[in-house]
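Q: Predict the assembly, please.
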Amino acid sequence: MISFLAFSISRAWQSFWRNAAMSIAATATMTLMLLLLSGFWIVQAGLLAGLEFVEQKVQVVADLNDGASESAIASLQARIQAMPEVLEVDYVTKEQALQRFQASRQAQGQEDLSGYLQVNPLPASLEVKLRKADSFDLVQSALRADPVVDRVKNIADLAGRVATITDFLRTAGLGLLAIIGAIVLFIVINTIRLAVVGRSEEIEIMRLVGASDAFIRWPFVFEGAMVGLFGAALTLGVLAGASEPLGRFMFDFFRILPFSVGSISRDVALLVVGAGMGLGVLGAWISVRTYLIR
Amino acid sequence: MTIETLSDRRRGPRRAPAPTELDRASNGLGPRPVLVLNNVTKTYPNGRNALKEVDLVVPEGDFVFLVGPSGAGKSTLMKLLIRDEVATEGTVYLDGDDLAKLPRRRVARVRRKVGIVFQDFKLLPTKTVRENIAFALEVTGTSRRQIRPAVERVMALVGLTGQAAQYPHQLSGGEQQRTAIARALVHDPRIVIADEPTGNLDPLISWEIIQLLLRINELGVTVLMATHDADVVTALRKRVVALEDGHVMRDELGGGYHRRG
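A: Predicted assembly structure:
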């Protein structure tokens, strides 16, 4: 078994270099395809993060009764915070609401109208940030059910529109990624197939001198894996080289997104290495199968 | 030698190889047969009858010429022997194994009992003479320690020790064919099948190759050689099997290329 592995790997290594032209062509194709795949993957990840960011801007605001006790408000806040759909709950007191109103009047350069009144007319409120725009209904009815709540501002229209757009973009992105994945799959498999067909005489001779299927198949499978690994290494090299200038350019964009560059580069590295190896092995396996003992 | 001792020599599970047919086939022929074709018919999917009711017994140590015009069925016969094709009717025994009943995983092992030499040599251009010969052992899982002496031995036998490190394109046609013969011999086959081995060589070199095959035969290896070379066949007075239109038209010892009279 060990010697079989050693044989297969050393033969794969040897034939990779002795058929350099074919190997380089296959590796180059693999690299370009992996770049396409990972590039699109990164764009897709950015898109998803952007959508998430937009969705979190959707918030449900519940105005509270003036007479509500602090403890009742605190318990409602805790209950809402515990819901899985909820990202964050902010309690805005009557005083804070008034300050906000005054600040926004000032920012607009208009007169502070609050001076005309003896009492603060603005209600205290809970501002609930959602994880997903389409879960507003649930949160809204939970708020309405509580006696502390005076009224909940109806955001159905806005939330519905945001949900429609984000759903469409998510589906379209996934669909595009699937199509690009399929294109990459076919091109890589066909390239490796060409490399194998170019060596059909060698396979023929192996068959005639009595090589078993395993001895014919595995060197090619390892060679396919090598093409995949080299392609993946090149791709990651190009991506790493591009990430520095690209990162500076996109820094501002990413900073506002709930999006960590560390996790994305790990995902991309896994994707590139996994797809490269997987495609190389799969392509070789399929291509050699035609030549095995009938 | 009886069938029992024959199967005892084989590795792997014992199977009864239809003893009555084999017994009948080897009757009165002295040494046990390496190859037995019993009423073999091969019909291709397109309906062409390449072989029709062929009976052929090749005893161990024999040297047989297979002659006949193109399309007579020589190539099909050779494909049957290495189980590249399976007979439509009848049975093919190679060293006691019924090739049609051979399980898939044993095909490779049985093929190693056959050494094949082609008209176009079929050497790997990216490998040296030594590597081309060693290749036949490497791909069958032989250990490196056993490969080296075996390769040196057959290279000496065919007279290629001096060219061991050269690539096929650096060799003459005769040297290339000798490399192919060495490769066919290196795993100690029971029978060497040569498909027009001199077809691409000039007459002088052809004789060299024939002499080499005869020497190998003298060492005890059974040789089956398909050829168009009438001069060679007639001069050597060996056994000649003539195929025509899928039938065995003639099977005689010491025959010529053409029918006598």
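DSSP finds nine helices and ten strands in chain B. The first helix of chain B runs from residue 3 to 9.
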